[in-house]
Amino acid sequence: MSARTATGVCAAAALALLVPACSSDDSKDDKQDKTSELSAQEISDKAKQELLDAKSVHITLAEKGTDAEKDEPAAMDLTLDREGNCTGKLTFAAGGGSADLVKRGDKVWMRPDSAFWRHQVPGGDGAAAAELFKNRYIHGSTSDPLLKGLSEVCDLKKLQKSVDEDSDDDTDKLKKGDVTTVDGTEVVPLTSTEDGKKKTLYVASEGKPYLIRATEKGDGEDKTTTLSDYGEPVPTKTPSAGESVDIAKLQDQLQRT
């Protein structure tokens, strides 16, 4: 299983969309105007700051039209916080299956489906593993290499740091569009084009200027990231002992193959 590869690709794909076209200096404007009445630059700055200040957030990522390998996530649905806790699901490209993921502190639970086992473990061994661990979580800690890389996607602090460090100073091409609606929320679209790809940020037009959705299309790619539930706590429920198998049993199985 290429856990580290999977995590790196998944995080990079998300961050490519989550980094707004913001200046490196955060907006200090305390005006109470509706977001839709602000300039594109002001909206972008405020959305960036809300993301940097978030203690938790729910993120979904969907990617289409790429030549991603089977060990690269094509979609994710995660609720994560600044303490590194998370719960959700990763779906891998090219029919590579999916895996439910729960992380609480340094404890990690991963429940792959049968397609994941069959694609990630070669030959008939994948089918054997799928049957042996059917509908159960592999349980271990972040000290285990098999789980550490995969669970790193749960670190909201790391994501926020990347957003802060990678912001683009070239914002003169950012354009503000008319107010529209995304998932029932009125938003202001901010568009830009880079290397033939059109990027659009949808920022809530009233209340907190949260980044609600980000899209990137062009050059054979179609990525959509949606953000919601800013500040909502990550569910604390973890899989029971009866639903779990210690990772040592998985390691023993893999050594026999």
Detailed description of the structure:
With 257 residues, this protein is an alpha+beta fold. Helices cover 29% and strands 33% of the residues. The chain contains seven helices and 13 strands. The protein has helices at residues 3-18, 40-53, 114-120, 124-132, 145-151, 156-166, 247-256, and strands at 56-64, 73-81, 86-92, 98-104, 107-112, 137-141, 175-176, 180-182, 185-194, 197-204, 211-218, 221-228, 244-246. Strands 1, 2, 3, 4, 5, 6, 7, 8, 9, 10, 11, 12 and 13 form a 13-stranded mixed β-sheet that branches. Strand 8 and strand 9 (185-194) form a beta hairpin. Helix 3 packs antiparallel against helix 4 (124-132). The longest helix is centred in the N-terminal third of the chain and has 16 residues, at 3-18. The chain starts with a helix and ends with a helix.
Please give a handful of descriptors for the protein shown.
alpha+beta; 29% helix; 13-stranded mixed sheet; 7 helices; 33% strand; 257 residues; disordered N terminus
What's the helix and strand layout?
Blueprint lengths: L2 H16 L21 H14 L2 E9 L8 E9 L4 E7 L5 E7 L2 E6 L1 H7 L3 H9 L4 E5 L3 H7 L4 H11 L8 E2 L3 E3 L2 E10 L2 E8 L6 E8 L2 E8 L15 E3 H10 L1
Parallel strand pairs: 6-13
Antiparallel strand pairs: 1-2, 1-12, 2-3, 3-4, 4-5, 5-6, 7-9, 8-9, 9-10, 10-11, 11-12
Mean pLDDT: 82
Q: Give the end-to-end Cα distance, rounded to a whole number of Å.
A: 14 Å
| Main sheet specs | 13 strands, mixed
Summed up, the helix count is 7
Roughly what percent helix?
25-40%
Number of strands: 13
Low-confidence stretches: 1-18, 20-32
Structural class: alpha+beta
Q: Please tell me how large the radius of gyration is.
A: 20 Å
Overall outline: elongated
* Series of H and E elements: HHEEEEEHHEHHEEEEEEEH
Our estimate of the beta-strand percent is 25-35%
